[in-house]
Design brief:
By secondary structure, the protein is of the alpha/beta class. The protein has a single domain, classed as Phosphoglycerate mutase-like (Rossmann fold, 3-Layer(aba) Sandwich), CATH 3.40.50. The protein is about 40% helix and about 15% strand. It contains seven helices and six strands; from the N terminus they run βααβαβααβααββ. A six-stranded mixed sheet has the order 3-2-4-1-5-6. It is globular.
């Protein structure tokens, strides 16, 4: 059993709006994404004031760091008092980063169909599968020794739900992972805030 974990997906980017695979590209938040980060910071400190004493960690990608800093400011905390962990980077979509699924269907229809059949195991060209991502996240989860507030990415959140909450892998990678809510995991149970 891990300590309590509050997981926040970074705020919206223009690529999220366009449906582009961001992966590990460093795409900045848009204005709506900044508002989401502020809302999430205010919501968590109101619902769980003890979160101020948690360990704070973020993916090194700019959209996660900016989300963390805005959220911490909304909590009344020093925006820079957190650390980063490379293992929290988003899944790599490799050569597919920057494309929409519709664009990929035009030139790589068979591969897109293969991905749709088994999204968990699918390995995009020069990228990672969700199974590979889970190995990275398992290594990170094993280091958690105290309650933690993490800001990362949708793909990471999906594998966290699969691992810690027992969500079926196919469902976990198909489900939406919202940017305007926080996932609170305590005692093996999860709730959205």
């Amino acid at each position: 059993m891990i300590p309590p974990l509050v997981f926040l997906r970074h705020g919206e980017t223009d690529w999220n709006v366009e449906g582009r695979l961001q992966g590990q590209r460093d795409i900045p938040l848009n204005e709506r994404g900044r508002g989401q980060a502020k809302r999430n910071g205010a919501a968590i400190i109101a619902a769980m004031p003890e979160v101020a004493d948690y360990d704070f960690v973020a993916s090194p990608l700019g959209r996660s760091r900016e989300t963390m800093e805005i959220a911490r400011l909304a909590m009344g905390l020093d925006p820079s008092a957190y650390h980063i962990d490379d293992r929290l980077k988003e899944i790599s979509f490799g050569a597919w980063e920057g494309f929409t699924i519709a664009e990929l269907r035009e030139g790589h229809g068979a591969l897109v169909a293969e991905r749709e059949r088994d999204k968990w195991r699918f390995l995009p060209p020069d990228g990672e599968s969700y199974g590979i991502l889970l190995e990275r996240i398992d290594a990170w989860l094993a280091t958690l020794t105290r309650p933690t507030f993490a800001v990362s990415h949708g793909g990471v959140g999906r594998v966290v739900r699969a691992r810690l909450l027992g969500v079926d892998r196919a469902r976990a990678v198909a489900d939406e992972f919202p940017q305007d809510r926080l996932l609170v995991i305590e005692d093996g149970a999860g709730r959205w805030l």
